[in-house]
Specification:
Elements (H helix, E strand, L loop, with lengths): L5 E7 L6 H9 L6 E8 L5 H11 L3 E6 L4 H11 L4 E4 L5 E2 L3 H11 L4 E10 L15 E3 L1 H6 L1 H4 L5 E4 L16 H11 L5 E13 L10 H20 L3 H21 L7 H17 L6 H12 L1 H11 L3 H18 L1
Parallel strand pairs: 1-2, 1-4, 2-3, 6-9
Antiparallel strand pairs: 4-8, 5-9, 6-8, 7-9
Helix pairs in contact: 8-9, 8-10, 9-10, 9-11, 10-11, 11-12
């Protein structure tokens, strides 16, 4: 029986310190029928030379070279040349468990699903590059509603295996980051009856480094995400698209809240934040029953009362107090210099 071909898409940009670790974990995976698509996104370090060395060692590796355009464009370039029955994304500073692909493929088959999702282990600079022993893996089948309840799952493109027919080059290059969430929602909007196979085993190792994108986040990200979600949500309301409202109305409200919180010390953004929140409130009021009433009310109150949302954020992430302190100190220094 023919084994399905899996296309592993790996965007590469200036990761000379980490690329060998990533590619070793993919090449040595126990599932052998792989197309390994590495997209060199205009790297200016030795990443290109490292890729050339790997191509000579393993004929499953294919390198696509592009001008630097960011993660979304690099992934889209990889999708265009992918020929696999399934597609998985691996970031080039991360690595995967030795049985990553075989276990995810087994999960899709066990629940007759469309997408397999696994857990991940966050790893920091000081941690050793190791993998973890697996316990007995239990696969759960998730429908759309259950998948949406598990918020973290829908925010990631990696730690997933997608059927190829779900995929098209739809990562939005205008988003600085957080492109994974819109991508996953767009798939779910087009295919609302997807079945997901989920196992919370840490098969993916997510490496957090000091200079990574997640550590350089600004309010611009939240505003771009709001500007992306809201027109889609408003169109879904206008066209009575219940699935679209379920997917995009609350996301619009959440991004409005995050944006307002992130600019709480930026006077130049205060008026913009007020207008964003007004628009999000109107959207919540116009949504139909596909958006649960209790969630609409909660988000409406958060949009109406900033202090209430701030308490909620800090209760869930006390480290934000340190961020707020740093913002206040920066504001005092700015005022003192004038």
């Amino acid at each position: 029986m023919r084994q399905p071909l899996i296309s592993a898409i790996i965007p590469v940009y200036n990761v000379e310190k980490y690329l060998d670790r990533c590619l070793t974990s993919v090449v040595e995976n126990d599932y052998r029928n792989l197309q390994i698509v590495c997209v060199n996104d205009g790297s200016v370090d030795s990443s290109g030379e490292i890729l050339d060395q790997w191509v000579r060692k393993d004929d499953r590796i294919q390198v696509v070279t592009t001008e630097n355009g960011g993660l979304a464009k690099a992934r889209n370039a990889g999708i265009r040349v992918a020929t696999g029955d399934y597609i998985g994304f691996v970031d080039s500073d991360d690595w995967i468990h030795p049985q990553y692909f075989s276990i995810l493929l087994d999960g899709v088959r066990r629940v007759d699903g469309d997408v397999a999702i696994c857990g991940f282990q966050r790893v920091y600079d000081s941690a050793p590059a190791k993998t973890y022993e697996l316990s007995d893996i239990t696969w759960n089948a998730l429908d759309r509603s259950r998948y949406l309840e598990l918020r973290l799952l829908r925010r990631l493109a990696w730690a997933k295996l997608y059927k190829k027919e779900l995929i098209s080059p739809t990562f939005n290059p205008s988003l600085l980051r957080s492109e994974d969430l819109p991508y996953n929602l767009s798939i779910l909007h087009r295919f609302p009856n997807l079945k997901f196979a989920y196992a919370n085993e840490p098969l993916y190792y997510y490496f957090t480094r000091q200079d990574s994108l997640v550590n350089t986040r600004t309010w611009v990200e939240g505003k771009l995400l709001f500007d992306y979600f809201v027109p889609i949500a408003e169109k879904c309301v206008k066209e009575h698209d219940s699935i679209g409202q379920e997917l995009y109305v609350l996301e619009s409200a959440k991004t409005a809240l995050v944006y307002r919180y992130d600019v709480m010390f930026d006077k130049e953004q205060k008026e913009s934040a007020r207008e964003v929140c007004k628009r999000a409130r109107r959207l919540l009021l116009s949504a139909n029953r596909s958006v649960p009433f209790n969630k609409r009310i909660l988000h409406y109150l958060f949009l109406l009362f900033p202090a209430l949302y701030r308490k909620f954020r800090i209760a869930n992430d006390p480290s934000l107090l340190k961020w707020e302190k740093g913002q206040r100190e920066a504001l005092r220094r700015e005022v003192a210099q004038k």
